[in-house]
Design goal:
mainly beta; 2 domains; UDP N-Acetylglucosamine Acyltransferase, domain 1; 10% helix; six-stranded parallel β-sheet; Rossmann fold; eight-stranded mixed β-sheet
């Protein structure tokens, strides 16, 4: 059994805690600079008190996740037992894979990503660091997602599409061709918001 400290104490942090416990590990603390949060054990700077633990980031914001990931800590990869992850997939350190997600063969998921509940990431995908594949998103085969992307809830990305860094795909949007400029894309088929 591993001891896990979660950085963050909000809703996302508690979802990570559920995964950690389902893996058979122990959550020993939630650290958050908003120390008024329920279950908070102290500010994030208290991480130094837990030298024998692994750490997971329970904060959804990609920029905050990236900043915290620069701390010299041992990062825990939280994969829920109900997720289906191919033994031929590669999952980066600190990534969270939620219940009932599917990650198929030869997919590479970057570090500190979120693959949320029920998301489907088909074969031969490449997902960049700090990206979030939201609840129920569906990615066809051979899809490439850049760093710091947010693929919205229930969205669909057609096979063989590539999305550059710093893109938000809106809820329910459908991507049918490559996206080569950062921005927010919505609709069916998706178009950049002006």
């Amino acid at each position: 059994m591993k001891k896990i400290v979660i950085l963050g104490a909000g809703g996302h942090a508690h979802v990570i805690a559920d995964i950690v416990k389902a893996q058979g590990n122990q959550v020993v603390a939630f650290l958050d600079d908003n120390i008024e949060q329920p279950d908070c054990s102290g500010p994030i700077s208290d991480y130094k008190k837990y030298s024998d633990a692994e750490f997971a980031i329970g904060i959804g914001d990609a920029d905050i996740r990236e900043g915290l990931s620069m701390l010299n800590l041992k990062w825990h990869t939280a994969i829920h037992p109900s997720a289906i992850v191919s033994p031929f997939a590669v999952i980066g350190e600190g990534t969270a894979v939620m219940p009932n997600a599917v990650i198929n063969a030869r997919t590479i998921i970057g570090k500190h990503c979120i693959v949320n509940t029920g998301a489907i990431v088909e074969h031969d995908n490449v997902i960049g660091d700090y990206s979030h594949i939201s609840v129920g998103a569906n990615l066809g085969g051979t899809v490439s997602i850049g760093n710091h992307c947010w693929i919205g809830i229930g969205s669909t990305i057609k096979n063989n599409c590539s999305i550059c860094d710093n893109v938000v795909i809106g809820a329910g949007a459908v991507v049918i061709k490559n996206i080569e400029a950062s921005g927010v894309y919505v609709g069916i088929p998706c178009r950049i918001m002006r």
